[in-house]
Amino acid sequence: MTLNLTDSWISIKKKQIASGKKIPTQINFNLTTNDLEQIINQRQRFNRLNLSPELLAELRYYSLLQNQTTLELSLTFTTYYVRKQQKIAVIKSIIDLQGKISQQLCRSFLKKPRLLNDLVVSHYWLIGKICDRIHLKYKSKNSLLAWSLSLAIVLIIAPLFFYFLKLNFSPKLIILVAILFLLYLTINFIFKKYLASFLLQQLLFGFFSKNTYRRRLGWLLLQYFG
User: How many Å apart are CA 53 and CA 41, to the nearest integer?
Assistant: First the structure.
């Protein structure tokens, strides 16, 4: 099952890096008593956290930037306990993608062990589910597209091929099949070697890095052609 992470639960802060791009640096969880009860009582049923497309695009852009550059970046996760329109920062974790973690706890909540335990459990459960969604999982459709383009080219040239080539039907068919495979290998190679690399660079530093909408579009294209 999927748990929807509502806008009231989460807020995100960004900062501008040297390249002029804005990236997420802090994610805040704003949890009420009811939110805590929902997570604690039902977390075993939920194997996936449903993030908004905008948040997912920003976090995956951060992940790409961290993996493809030498920038030392980290994400700060802070869980706030919300009660009577008051927000108290209870636990803060600073995590980078190499696994280094530092954390802080609000001392006053040490006197409320049950509430603190629920907040800590919810805090790390949400972080874990978000990190699961950040990981880059390419579902490349290069092969299908390469086959489609190759077949289209062969179908276009086939009438001329059969008309002008003075051979029996079987040799002509064998040659066309060989051309089909050669076209597929060539197109697939171009997609993997050049197009995916171009899209990645554009997503990191070029056209698709400018704002959240473009990052979403770039990510979709990279999933398709990566």
Answer: 26
